[in-house]
Design a protein that fits this description.
The chain has 10 helices and 2 strands, in the order H-H-H-E-E-H-H-H-H-H-H-H. With 215 residues, it is mainly α. It has a two-stranded antiparallel ribbon. The longest helix is centred in the middle third of the chain and has 22 residues. The mean pLDDT is 85.
Length: 215
């Protein structure tokens, strides 16, 4: 079977053990290394970009992985137009289904990280620690989906939640413990590969957060 430019590009990435965040060589040099035309190379890069495997910035080059939030051109405007109630509504529609998907697609490594994160969440002694592990908990569920679009959207949501006017402060230890128990229930359902229960637990958790914040 004839080797395509995409095959050659993927082989190059594997051979050089490139990982997310690493830069690819400039197009001219890369095309020469792969022995393909620049037109063929551009088609291969477009395919990888469409699948979320790379991102390209004008004047910055081409990088493996999803586009970092600081390079997302519409994020600032999105933050300015979005209220805490908007984010809560979006999360309630999106994250229960995501928890169900994670229960089906998570790898053993994903499950181990999620369980560890839930335990760290429960040990948080103040709001700053809680926010750190809460953000990571929800991002780990997204990463378990193995879907670049879902991961990118969750990163955007987390970025908006960090805005001062959006911060979901949990000022008392009792509330943090209550939410940590709900996180553990979500994690337990995902570990058990029970998508229906994972979705239900996530929905209940997010509705509790909405009530706590008066949304």
């Amino acid at each position: 079977m004839e080797k395509t430019a995409l095959d050659s590009l993927l082989a190059h990435i594997a051979r050089h053990q490139l990982k997310d965040g690493d830069a690819l060589p400039p197009e001219r040099k890369l095309a020469e290394e792969l022995g393909v035309s620049r037109r063929e190379l551009r088609a291969a890069l477009a395919s990888l970009e469409a699948s979320g495997r790379i991102w390209r910035g004008v004047g910055r080059g081409t990088y493996l992985g999803t586009r970092p939030l600081k390079f997302a051109p519409t994020l600032r405007a999105l933050r300015a137009r979005t209220s805490p109630a908007d984010i809560a509504e979006m999360r309630l529609m999106f994250e229960p289904a995501l928890a169900g998907l994670a229960a089906l697609k998570a790898t053993p490594e994903d499950l181990a990280e999620l369980e560890k994160c839930a335990k760290k969440n429960a040990m948080a002694k103040n709001d700053e620690e809680w926010q750190l592990w809460d953000q990571r908990f929800h991002l780990l569920i997204a990463r378990a989906s193995r879907n670049p679009a879902i991961i990118a959207l969750t990163e955007v949501i987390n970025g908006m939640r960090l805005e001062p006017r959006q911060r979901e402060r949990t000022v008392d230890q009792a509330t943090r413990q209550h939410f940590a128990q709900q996180h553990q229930a979500i994690a337990d359902a995902i570990l058990a590969r029970d998508g229906e229960t994972a979705a239900r637990c996530m929905r209940e958790h997010l509705m509790n957060v909405q009530r706590y914040r008066g949304l």
